[in-house]
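Journal club prep — side note

Before the paper discussion, L.F. wants everyone to see what a predicted structure for a comparable chain looks like in token form. Sequence:
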Amino acid sequence: MRRELILAAATLGGILLAMPAMGGTPVRPADEAAGADAAPDTAADEAKHGVSGGQGVQDTREVEASPEDASPGEDRAWTVAVLSDFNGAYGSTEYGDEVHRAVAWLSEDVRPDVVISPGDMVAGQRGGLDHRAMWASFHEVVTRPLARAGIPFAISPGNHDASGSPAFWEERVHFAREWQDRAPAVEMVETSGFPFYYAFKVGPALFVALDATTVGPIDEAQRLWLEAVLKAHSELPTKIVFGHLPLHPVAQSKEDETLADEALEALLLRHEVDLYVAGHHHAYYPGKRGELGLLHSACIGAGPRKLLGEERVSDRSVALVRYGAEGLRSVEAYRGEGFEEVVPREELPRSVGEGRRKIWRDDVQPDEAEGQAERRVWGGLEGGA
């Protein structure tokens, strides 16, 4: 029976799900959640703790708020942790010590309100791999420990999880199967594209996960969807969008692997998004372009890289973003054996990149000449589509 269900999911729903519909955004058949083979290792304890089990893409039910959430107050702070790029060698079912230690640190010490990941949780994007085994290992090492700790875990796809390239449509089928019953236990506000793109709230913040796994701009349908979500929740003081590829390059050897999406950047600026969180480049850099914050996540798995123009390899780290009723408060990354050391801004270059793709460190004010040129760039972007 399992074989027939898997074949049915692949033939009836897989191609539509995985092939780029309007440029990469998946279209998931309405009956797929009911008809596809459920993820074999979905545990009941996930549903009881940090995962809202069984949520289909049309379910927008609210999670009951805690007393703290109901009456936030000015002193209430929310914390979101960012874990990115866990994967190792192609097909690997093992995770490095840093991944295990990071999950333990978050579960036992930090206990954030939510953990988000901009992707690359498994080591796919190659034929002949055992995707069931890779995802089973990831759930054992990451998903279930966070769920047992009662910490919601919200993901977006990476190119090694569910690339939007037509060649890897089967990996998108696997991705959908693994996550369709593992929606985070948060207040979901838009789930028509879940688990590839969706939106939710945690306290006074809106979070939007994007399907951003391929080089070049996201498709128009997803951009219009994003704009509608941002408009519908414009009253929230903090807005965080996350996706795998960054808008602009920050790491050596990855200069051409970005979204380079002026329309998306203009949209984020126009709707006063506080932070766009990305992975893929495996180098930590807390940047800004105009009023838009850009958090480039370090990897927690294999292959840390050097920032552009730098000789030092970026440390593996975990980022913590804190916000309150008034808006975003801080962005810091933590490194070391027990993640006890804050990565100091002074270790990072004042800026990376050049010209229209230049990114300033988020605590730096450009000098007057550069500031004038920058304002002309932002003026052009904000007036764009």
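L.F.'s comment for the group: Residues 1-44, 54-72 have pLDDT under 50 and may be disordered. Keep this in mind when we get to the figures.
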